Amino acid sequence: MSTPFPTLQKRGDELASGESQRRILEAPGRFPRFDDVLDGVGPLRTTSIDVFQVNVGKLCNQTCKHCHVDAGPDRKEIMTQATAEECVRAIERSGVKTVDITGGAPELHPTFRYLVRESKRLGCHVIDRCNLTVLNLRSQADLLEFLAEHSVEVIASLPYFQARQTDAQRGDGVFESSILALQKLNGAGYGQGNGRQLHLVYNPVGAFLPPRQASIEADFKRELKQRYDITIDGVYAITNLPISRFLDFLRTSGNYEAYLQKLIDAYNPAAAQGVMCRTMVSVGWDGRLYDCDFNQMLDFPVEATAGRHVRDFDPARHVGRRIRTGRHCFGCTAGAGSSCGGETA
């Protein structure tokens, strides 16, 4: 028998703290620790800093059931202009070539366009993690023009190419709004092979692993073209990690132990070699530094010796830093692997 897991307590409308989630994930029992399976791979360390990921906050126009950020319209965590300026100085010091802006719905945050402009001024490729429906808000009428003008890559979340699965995960009417947004993106030259890149993110709607990326990409491209005359550059298949709202879903539905065991059974050493945390740093809305966006949601900052705030960011101290891991990392190393850019193995 495995040890019973502690209760995931609610805190107002928020999920439990990152520390509480870590206690659940790391509870003693029949499951191995992640570091114990890293034979020939670990401990994991960064090899370079190629991607500077900035989470500008938790404000979002949607409240998705699977959201690992626990984002929504009522969230108040928003990056200040001062912290955004510290991010730009850190990007300049690092010489990094890719800036990945996420949220929440990052476009709703007051520092989003500043970060885009300044990152492009520094010669960086900029990624916008977009939920698609934000493009249809009246307050964002000029957003598409702004993205196209700055050749921002759009990586957009779309659970499936049919309405039922998408709306079940993201809310009624989200699929229809998402299709309208994709048609607008195509109209602005996105997904047409002209340099304005448009990728979709697929993650399962239930407690199972995604199919191989090439397979789901072929399905998405075919169905979106046939049904809606929409073209995209590609699809990234991402595994749902057992944190935040998805952790809550797993436990309330009685699927937590089976899902975690599924991730562990699918552990792939080759995927562990290619995890995204080895080549990135993640910045929280308050400027604190993390190994990845998932560690950020678990309040699990980088090791102290590397410096834990963007104002103190020194790229030399972050290359080779030891990555802090936990059982949630089995999600990124299961099967073909999972990262912000899809499969890793």
Report on the architecture of this protein:
With 345 residues, the protein is α/β, with parallel strands linked by helices. It has one domain (48-258, 276-322): Aldolase class I (TIM Barrel). 32% of the residues lie in helices and 10% in strands. It is built from twelve helices and eight strands. Helix 2 (81-94) packs parallel to helix 3 (112-121).
SSE blueprint and pairings:
Layout: H1 18-25, E1 51-55, H2 81-94, E2 98-102, H3 112-121, E3 125-130, H4 143-149, E4 153-157, H5 163-170, H6 174-187, E5 198-202, H7 213-228, E6 234-237, H8 244-252, H9 256-265, H10 269-273, E7 280-283, E8 289-290, H11 293-297, H12 315-318
Parallel strand pairs: 1-2, 1-7, 2-3, 3-4, 4-5, 5-6
Antiparallel strand pairs: 7-8
Task: Please state the average pLDDT score.
Answer: 91
Query: What topology, given as strand order, has the largest sheet?
Result: 6-5-4-3-2-1-7-8
Rg, Å, rounded: 19 Å
Task: Output the CATH topology.
Answer: TIM Barrel
What is the N-to-C succession of helices and strands?
A: HEHEHEHEHHEHEHHHEEHH
Give the CA-CA distance, first to last residue. 34 Å
Shape: globular
Which parts are unreliable, with pLDDT below 50 for 5 consecutive residues or more? 1-14
The CATH homology group name: Aldolase class I
User: What is the number of helices?
Assistant: 12
- Given this structure, which CATH class is correct? Alpha Beta
Question: What about the largest sheet?
Answer: 8 strands, mixed
Tell me roughly what share of residues is in helical segments.
25-40%
Examine the secondary-structure arrangement and name the CATH architecture. Alpha-Beta Barrel
Strand-residue proportion: 5-15%
Structural class, judged by helices and strands?
alpha/beta
Q: What is the strand tally?
A: 8
Tally of separate domains: 1
